[in-house]
Design a protein that fits this description.
Blueprint (H helix, E strand, L loop, with lengths): L5 E5 L6 H15 L6 E5 L2 H7 L9 E4 L2 E5 L12 E5 L6 H10 L2 E5 L7 H5 L3 E3 L5 E5 L16 H9 L2 H10 L4 H8 L3 E5 L7 H9 L5 E6 L14 E6 L4 H10 L2 E5 L2 H9 L3 E4 L7 H12 L4 H12 L2 H11 L2 H19 L4 H15 L1
Parallel strand pairs: 1-2, 1-5, 2-4, 5-6, 6-8, 9-10, 9-12, 10-11, 12-13
Antiparallel strand pairs: 3-4, 7-8
Helix pairs in contact: 8-13, 9-10, 12-13
C-alpha cells in the first residue's frame, strides 16, 4: 500500500482557532513515522502568519516545518489530490478538486469540531455517501477513547514538566513578551500569573474586580487586541500586560507557566488542558444558547467541582457581577487547591488516550487497506 499523504483544507473563521488546529495537525502528521507528505490549504495567510512567523502572506505556495502550504484562492490552484483529503470543519474543498479526488479515489475526511456531547461517540467515523460516488467520513475529536481524541504531540507532558522545572525559562519568556522586570520579580515572590484569551463579550471587568479583591497580587497577561480597554487600576493589585501574538510553542509555554488560564474556542482549550492548570473556557457562542448545552456536556465530563461549573457558566453568560462573586469563591484556598488538583488529574487522564493525529492515521490506514 502506498504511504499515506494528506491534503488539509482550512478556512479561517475564528481568526486563530481554525488555523491553530489545522497547523498543529499538519505538523504532527508530517512528523509521525515513517514521514508523510502533508499539504495545508489556507484562505487567510495573514492570520496564519500571526501564529507562525515563517509564513509569507504573499506567497501562493511555500513550505514551513515540513508542511507544504498553499494559498487557497478563488479559483483554487490546480494540484493533484493526495491519498487522504481532510476538510476541517466542513469547509468544502473546491468542486474541481473533488472531481480529481473521484478519479483517484482519495479518502475523504471531514474533521469535525470538538465536542463532549454523548452522541459524538456513535457518529465518530460514520460515512456519508456523496453524489459523485465518494464517501465522506466524519471524524470527531473528543474526550473519550471512543472518539478521535485530542491533538497532543509525543512527549508533550514530559516537555512541559522539564520546562517548568527551570524557573528561569519562564522569566526569559515573560521578558521576551515585554513583561517589566519588576512584575517578573513579583511572580518570584509569589504573585499569581493569569492568562486571558477571550471573546469581546466576556465579563473581563468582573475578572479584574475579583482579582483586585485578592490578597495575592496578579500579573494578568492579555494578547494584544483581544480585550481593548482592560487596564490597571490606580493603586490596584493587578498589573495588566498586553502582549504581542507569539508562535504556538511560546503560546503553550505561557499556558504552562500561568496559574490560571482563560481560553476561548477549541485550539486554546486543548492546549490549556495539557498545561494541567486551572482553566476557564469561553465556548464559541451560538444561537438560542446552544453553546451552553455543549459547555455543560464538557463540564459533566470534567472532574471539577460545582464551584468551578458555576463559575464557567457565569463566564459564558457574560454577567460581570455574578462572575466576580463566583471567582471569589473559586479562589478561596480550599477551593483553589481542589481546582488545581482536579486540573492536573484530568490532564494526566486525557493524556492516557490516543491522540488525534495518531487516531486519524490509524483510521486512514485501515480504510485504505480495506478499500
Amino acid at each position: 500500500m502506498p504511504r499515506l499523504s494528506f491534503d488539509i483544507f482550512c478556512r479561517v473563521v475564528d481568526n486563530f482557532g481554525d488555523i491553530g488546529v489545522c497547523w498543529r495537525l499538519a505538523r504532527q502528521l508530517a512528523r509521525l513515522p515513517p514521514g508523510r507528505e502533508v499539504r495545508l490549504w489556507v484562505d487567510d495567510l495573514h492570520s496564519f502568519g500571526r501564529i507562525e512567523p515563517g509564513v509569507d502572506p504573499q506567497a501562493a505556495q511555500q513550505s514551513a516545518r515540513g508542511v507544504d502550504i498553499v494559498h487557497w484562492t478563488q479559483p483554487a490552484p490546480v494540484l493533484r489530490p493526495h491519498a487522504v483529503v481532510i476538510e476541517a470543519f466542513a469547509c468544502d474543498p473546491p468542486a474541481a478538486f473533488i472531481e480529481a479526488m473521484v478519479r483517484q479515489d482519495s479518502l475523504w475526511i471531514n474533521l469535525e469540531y470538538l465536542s463532549a456531547e454523548g452522541w459524538v461517540e456513535s457518529c465518530h467515523t460514520l460515512p456519508s455517501a456523496q453524489h459523485h460516488g465518494l464517501r465522506k467520513h466524519f471524524f470527531f475529536p473528543g474526550f473519550t477513547p471512543a472518539t478521535g481524541g485530542l491533538l497532543r504531540e509525543p512527549g508533550l507532558l514530559s516537555e512541559r514538566d522539564e520546562w517548568l522545572a527551570q524557573p528561569g525559562q519562564r522569566d526569559a519568556l515573560l521578558g521576551a513578551i515585554g513583561v517589566p522586570g519588576r512584575q517578573i520579580e513579583r511572580l518570584r515572590q509569589g504573585a499569581r500569573q493569569v492568562f486571558l484569551f477571550c471573546y469581546p463579550d466576556a465579563p473581563a471587568q468582573g475578572l479584574l474586580d475579583s482579582l483586585e479583591r485578592q490578597a495575592c497580587p496578579t500579573l494578568l497577561i492579555v494578547p494584544r487586541g483581544v480585550y481593548p480597554g482592560l487596564q490597571d487600576r490606580p493603586g490596584g493589585r493587578v498589573h495588566v500586560h498586553e502582549m504581542p501574538f507569539v508562535d504556538q510553542a511560546a503560546f503553550d509555554r505561557l499556558l504552562w507557566s500561568s496559574d490560571l488560564n482563560f481560553v476561548r474556542g477549541e485550539d486554546s482549550l486543548v492546549r490549556a488542558l495539557w498545561a494541567g492548570k486551572p482553566l476557564v473556557w469561553q465556548i464559541y457562542a451560538q444561537d438560542a444558547n446552544t453553546h451552553m448545552i455543549k459547555l455543560q456536556a464538557w463540564l459533566d465530563r470534567s472532574p471539577c467541582r460545582q464551584t468551578v461549573h458555576a463559575l464557567m457558566r457565569d463566564w459564558n453568560l457574560g454577567d460581570p457581577e455574578a462572575f466576580a462573586l463566583r471567582m471569589n469563591e473559586a479562589l478561596e484556598p480550599g477551593n483553589w487547591a481542589q481546582w488545581q488538583s482536579d486540573s492536573a488529574q484530568w490532564s494526566d487522564e486525557l493524556a492516557g488516550y490516543p491522540d488525534l493525529a495518531y487516531s486519524l492515521v490509524g483510521f486512514c490506514t485501515q480504510r485504505r487497506r480495506s478499500g
